[in-house]
Specification:
- The protein is an alpha+beta fold.
- The protein has one domain (16-47, 78-198): VSR Endonuclease (Endonuclease, Chain A, 3-Layer(aba) Sandwich).
- It contains four helices and seven strands.
- Strand 5 and strand 6 (121-126) form a beta hairpin.
- The relative contact order is 0.19.
Length: 208
């Protein structure tokens, strides 16, 4: 399973999990907002989230000019990548239905890789190059002054996307493309099941 998440075995495990803002109603003592029902699952500090790269460079070029950089860009597709297709196939085999390359919120210019509209869960399978994987990012040797800030802007946009969707009531799941597709599918299914059971419990409480 994805590493870095210290959560009880009864809760679903995922690499980066962002619950809707409406869940974040309690403080865990370290200043991290956590939901009342999932205090360990949703604490970003507990999952060891450290998604920032620092570059002390300035942008002097507005495009990639080297042949190697162009090959890198071509090799890193933005949608329907092999990892995405593998995860989608496994989810479909489980009987799960979803939208692909879809805007969770029509008012936001943000597109998720897999979207469960009824459950309001948006899944992103981030490419190691474009999103700055701390393990596998191989920065082009030429024009670092361009690529460093470019990758950082992508990471900043990812964080902004998480916050915007959470504010709109969505749960956001993020995985790296290098993660095992079967484990990613297991994590997504577990989060969906966990949410379904939580919704069922809330419904039963309201009807009493």
């Amino acid at each position: 399973m994805p590493t870095g998440l210290d959560a009880p075995h009864s809760a679903p495990r995922a690499n980066f999990v962002y619950p809707p803002s409406s869940y974040a109603t309690a403080k865990d003592g370290r200043g991290t907002e956590t939901p009342k029902t999932l205090p360990q699952l949703w604490s970003l500090q507990e999952v060891g989230l450290a998604r920032s790269l620092t570059y002390s460079v300035s942008v002097t070029n507005s495009w990639a000019t080297s042949e190697r950089a162009r090959r890198t860009m071509i090799a890193n597709r933005s949608r329907d990548t092999a990892p995405e297709l593998a995860v989608r196939s496994l989810l479909h085999a489980r009987g799960l239905r979803y939208r692909t390359n879809f805007r969770p919120d029509r008012t936001l210019r943000r597109t998720a890789d897999v979207v469960f509209t009824r459950r309001r869960v948006a899944v992103f399978i981030d490419g190691c190059f474009w999103h700055g994987c701390p393990t596998h990012l191989a920065m082009p040797r030429s024009h670092v002054e361009y690529w460093g800030p470019k990758i950082q802007r992508n990471r900043d946009r990812d964080q902004e996307t998480n916050e915007l969707l959470r504010a709109a009531g969505w749960t956001v799941l993020r995985f790296w493309e290098h993660e095992d597709p079967a484990e990613v599918a297991d994590s997504i299914a577990a989060v969906l099941d966990f949410g379904d059971r939580a919704s069922q419990t809330d419904s039963q409480v309201r009807t009493r």
